[in-house]
Amino acid sequence: MATKVTITDVARRAGVSRQTVSNVLNSPELVREETRDRVREAIGTLGYRASQAARQMRTGRSRLIATRIEPDRDGINGSVLDRFLHGLTASAARAGYRILLYAAGDERSEIDTFDDLVGSHEPDAFVLTSTYHGDGRPAWLRERRLPFVTFGRPWGDTGEPDASGDPGHPWVDVDGAAGTAAATRHLLDAGHRRIGFLGWPPGSGVGDDRRSGWARTLTGAGIDPAGLDQATDDGVADGEKAARDLLRAERPITALVCASDSLALGALHAVRSLTASGQLTASGRLTAEGRLTVGGQAGGEEGLPVRVIGFDDTPVAKAVGLSSVSQPLAEAAAGCVGLLTRLFDPPSPGGPGESGGPGGPGGPGGPFASEAGGPRTHVLLQPSLVLRQSS
Amino acid sequence: MATKVTITDVARRAGVSRQTVSNVLNSPELVREETRDRVREAIGTLGYRASQAARQMRTGRSRLIATRIEPDRDGINGSVLDRFLHGLTASAARAGYRILLYAAGDERSEIDTFDDLVGSHEPDAFVLTSTYHGDGRPAWLRERRLPFVTFGRPWGDTGEPDASGDPGHPWVDVDGAAGTAAATRHLLDAGHRRIGFLGWPPGSGVGDDRRSGWARTLTGAGIDPAGLDQATDDGVADGEKAARDLLRAERPITALVCASDSLALGALHAVRSLTASGQLTASGRLTAEGRLTVGGQAGGEEGLPVRVIGFDDTPVAKAVGLSSVSQPLAEAAAGCVGLLTRLFDPPSPGGPGESGGPGGPGGPGGPFASEAGGPRTHVLLQPSLVLRQSS
DNA sequence: CTGTTAGCGCCTTCAG
DNA sequence: CTGAAGGCGCTAACAG
Q1: Residue B210's pLDDT band (cuts 50, 70, 90)
Q2: A85 vs B101: CB contact, 8 Å cut-off?
Q3: Which intervals carry biased composition (Gly residues) (chains A, B) (predicted)?
């Protein structure tokens, strides 16, 4: 049973003082190479590891990043945050940090947990997920000058990023609008014109963002999106119901972009069941093969199979052959860790641009001065479209 | 900006020595009530929190429990471990512990991580998930007398718990066989006789366990399970294929118990597509309503709709109306934390029985002596059957 | 019951 | 470049 090996043991073994060992660890350039190697060898053979607790007492840094684990959401989309969390754990480890988990039901209890954690385990930073309108967490953390990043833009009251005078904080996000735009474009390219959108009620930043990409693309192609979308709560049953309405509307859709895989799965059900029962709509007809024939409509969309595209590329999408917009979650996690470490160890000033990141250009980079002294950096990542049988 | 408040500040505020404050925190019974209240009030108004780092240096305990976050598995079952992890985080917090996360690809890297963690953040314990045949992690930890619990029985080489002389360690598990048995019984009660099983290739402890509950129940009802099951890799497509075989076999099944929701989802697809196309089998016929009419077979099963039951009660099961066996994951997590804290703070000896737990009787409680001195305790939880449209 | 003493392992001065 | 002090905040032993 190897009793705890300390820095003193290493020093003795290497024939140097404890400080030299410490220097080898923290400022190697101060130590002569020969000595350094000797110390490192001693560290290796003894299996020495610096005690975090002792180090933290001295430096005030815990090398811990705290984040919340969310309870299983109703839907199918829960896996998104899990994948993010896995990426975060891996990225953090690479940067020498560990993830500390906490659970919290609502904002109040989450902030209480912040308070608790800050006093006890003293994480070096927080990563916030699932940001929302009027999110009180960033303000609380900023007031106390606690480093943090959000995965998700700060959604202002208008649904636009930074629209409400938010002084800003580092964030990473995925460009949802670009994702739905790509999906819509793909369907346009396949000859579809009446491309619907199945989303959530207005007011959720993420949902509005995703809808906007669809609407923008349709408009750009000279198609009026009015009447082609439905808003509903997230869920398979809700999605199925809303999709039915769209498929049997006066101007029936022939393809559908959805704000989530749950909705898309519901839509798929709707398509299949309408297909199976050979139902008619006011101006369209679903054939046995899932092809929708739109009577008397102009354009080349006659006989095209009804297409559905989801969002998040969850395991279910893969399982049922649903095309979906995929978020680069590992990259997002890496981005969070990157922004955080940049806060801790500021890069040499005057370096390369500090906005933007891999996979896409940065955001607008507004001129807000950061009174907290932290650089207002952010990373906006581009999603990708994963095509399967459903489109 | 509230600068770090220390135990000295509290002592001064309360007019006592630092030691007294410490006593109020750790051994309140040693302090006169009046003093205690005064100190507590000072703690409250000052917002004092004991520094974990300092405490850890003194006590050697970090109040951290390390566990692994698994990468997204292929399937749909990933959510199981996430729900467990959430429960673990919540239970640990209630007991005054936090969860420290790590990621690891294989056993080798996981053990390297153990080593790293033990030397740096020094978690008080580990929780191991996804145990498997020949799992090398428990032995590694036990050799070093590091406290740990596994979620999952130690599967011996024969597939039976503790069959290979494993000296034992604390574990929590869910009785999978009881779950499939309940599912099978439910189908028997509904009049089914040819109840199939869709599982994984033999050799996986969990899979064999689940199959055994089905086989046992069928045998108990006087039905020979031979030829009524299929083994395949986990996955919707694999499940669909295997289910087709079963539905069109010489002795076609009329109901199906599955080892996972992925397989069950595939089976559901198979049932629906066979139903839709009105396919015939050697001795059965699927009607349009998904009813299987078995020609010339004895028993009351004619005209019964084909039933499918999954395992794990994942969000997808809920979404598509699939009946499924549900594991009590929050309880399992609580059980892990309970076993761990029992290790740290042993209950008064001669207390109540130390085996078994809520929801079910304990395991066999073999007579192995534990050379490490730790009590070999375990908790076997009972799953429940969640019925939906599919059964 | 309360106060004093000592030191956990490390890193940051400051001298050599 | 290397060695000698000092102390981060806390608690386990003792002394009063």
Answers
A1: very high
A2: yes
A3: 351-366
**Between the CA of residue A115 and those of A80, A87, A110, B47, B127, what are the distances in Å?**
27, 26, 9, 9, 26
SS3 state of residue A53: helix
- Give Rg (Cα) of chain A: 26
Among candidate residues B319, B312, B306, the one with its CA nearest the CA of residue B279: B306
**CB contact (8 A) between residue A319 and residue B93:** no
Q: What percent of chain B has pLDDT over 90?
A: 57
Reported as a pLDDT band with limits 50, 70 and 90, residue A301 is: very low
Of all nucleotides, the one whose C1′ comes closest to residue B119's CA is: C9
Of A64, A74, A98, the CB nearest to B102: A98
* pLDDT tens-digit map of A180-201: 999 999 999 999 999 999 999 9
Reported pTM: 0.87
Residues 6+ apart with CB under 8 A from A324: A261, A264, A309, A310, A311, A312, A313, A314, A317, A385, A386, A388
- Cβ neighbourhood burial of A241 (10 Å; 0-12, 13-18, 19+): middle
**Model pLDDT, residue B94:** 96
Query: Which residue reads 């006890």 in tokens?
Result: A120
Nearest-Å Rg of the Cα atoms of chain B is 26
Tokens of A385: 């479209």
Which of A36-50, A345-359, B266-280 is predicted with the least confidence, judged by mean pLDDT? A345-359
- 3-state helix/strand/coil string of chain B: CCCCCCHHHHHHHHCCCHHHHHHHHHCHHHCCHHHHHHHHHHHHHHCCCCCHHHHHHHHCCCCEEEEECCCCCCCCCHHHHHHHHHHHHHHHHHCCCEEEEECCCCHHHHHHHHHHHHHCCCCCEEEEECCCCCCCHHHHHHHCCCCEEEECCCECCCCCECCCCCCCCCEEEECHHHHHHHHHHHHHHCCCCCEEEEECCCCCHHHHHHHHHHHHHHHHCCCCCCCCEEECCCCHHHHHHHHHHHHCCCCCCCEEEECCHHHHHHHHHHHHHHHHHCCECCCEEECCCCEEEECCCCCCCCCCECEEEEECCCHHHHHHCCEEEECCHHHHHHHHHHHHHHHHCCCCCCCCCCCCECCECCCCCCCCCCCCCCCCCEEEECCEEECCCCC
